[in-house]
Amino acid sequence: MAGTIGALSGITLASGQARADAPLTSRAQGWQPVPAPGSTPAAQLRRIAAAGPQLAWAVGEEGRAGPSQGRALAMVWNGSAWSKTDLSHLDYAGRLSDVAGTSAGEAWSVGLPAGNASPLLRWDKTTWREAEFPGKGEPGVRLESVAIGPDQRVWICGSRDGAARLLLGEGQKWRWLDPLPGASASLYRIVLRAPNEVWVSGDQASGGGWSGLVARWNGTWTVLPPITGARLSIGDVHAAAPDDVWAVGTDAGVGGPPGRPGNPVLAHWNGTAWTKVQPGFTAGALSGIAADGQGRAAWISGWNYQDQSRSTYLRRDGSTWSVVRGPANAAPAPYLSDVTPIPGTAGFWSAGMTSPTPAPPTAAYTERFGA
């Protein structure tokens, strides 16, 4: 997992937990299932990105059987339907872990190591093609997550030479940036707040387990204090400002029987300390954060172990997070892995799989809100 990382001097983790400003309640909202056909079970979509109402991408894996890894799965939205993208020309058989795109000519995806390390893929307006980057094919190179700025610079988090670090693409030039301070860190998500400011999330070793990691890069690294837990990982982060940061993830706890669910984690950074917020359910996971048109965290995707008949979200109303249930009878037990805004609209996409178990007949799954 990950290891101890330097923290900001004089800043400590809030010791107590706080509840949202008002009671969290369940209520119906306008999420609707959208078919994502064509994949081979077991299939799952890990990440989703949209350039606008007429173009979106989702990536993950298909053909998974039990603990064995499946093969890469990519889908594209053309404004009216999802279709599976042919990837047979790629020399890659692993899972795609993230995707980002701003237009038909500017979209990127990365995948977990399989064979010759992690791939970097670029969308050519029809399919995905492998791109060159320093370290391509090196054992130990791992590309986890990708983000694209309005200046078309491409930011990737992952690891190289045994250290967590960033890979920056500017035009045709790629370069690795300084490694994250400390050792044994794992990065799972990168998000862009400003042209020269990105935030990453993941985990780090802590005693016999691991704690949540959030850090900022704006030319140098700033590592926030860890979000403490037994085996806690942060899957996504949203920074509206350096003193207004939301992080979501899962604490796997101290162990238990196979299939034991973890605990959802929702935490807020106010510039001084983390405060954990009760998300409204106690067993499951929180996976992704999407912002509204004002750049404020608006929706969180999740999975509620105690209510698996529908998908689960948190929606922000002012200063309050409320539990929102997805559409009824849309999937056997939908599990969401990500949520993202649809530029140019007030809508959102979410993606995941039709059940929390990545074994047949589980299939790729998407929902859409208000677009």
Summarize the structure in words.
The protein has 371 residues and is an all-beta fold. It contains no helices and 30 strands. The protein has strands at residues 17-18, 27-28, 31-34, 44-52, 55-62, 71-77, 82-84, 96-103, 106-111, 120-123, 128-130, 142-148, 154-160, 163-170, 173-176, 185-194, 197-206, 209-217, 221-223, 232-241, 244-251, 263-269, 274-277, 284-291, 297-304, 312-317, 320-325, 335-341, 348-353, 364-369. The relative contact order is 0.18.
Give the gist of this structure:
The chain has no helices and 30 strands.
Q: Roughly how many Å apart are the termini?
A: 39 Å
How many strands appear in the DSSP assignment? 30
User: Which secondary-structure class do the elements indicate?
Assistant: mainly beta
Q: What is the C-alpha radius of gyration, as a whole number of Å?
A: 19 Å
The main sheet orders its strands as 1-23-22-21-20
Largest sheet: 5 strands, mixed
| Overall mean pLDDT | 90
Q: Approximately how much helix is present in the residues?
A: under 10%
Number of H/I helices: 0
- Principal-axis shape: globular
Q: Give start-end ranges of low-pLDDT stretches.
A: 1-28
**H-E string:** EEEEEEEEEEEEEEEEEEEEEEEEEEEEEE
